[in-house]
Amino acid sequence: KLAELYYKVQVNEQIGIAPVVQYLIDPLGDSSRDDVVALGLRSLISF
Fold this sequence. Notes:
mainly beta
């Protein structure tokens, strides 16, 4: 199971950033494993 939170911010016409938070419940389908939180940052730069 996966829950994801995503939000895009357009800084200006050339730059956009998007922080991402993912929460994985029962990774690999194994309920004995701890849940996992993954943080990321997506970016787009146009020339």
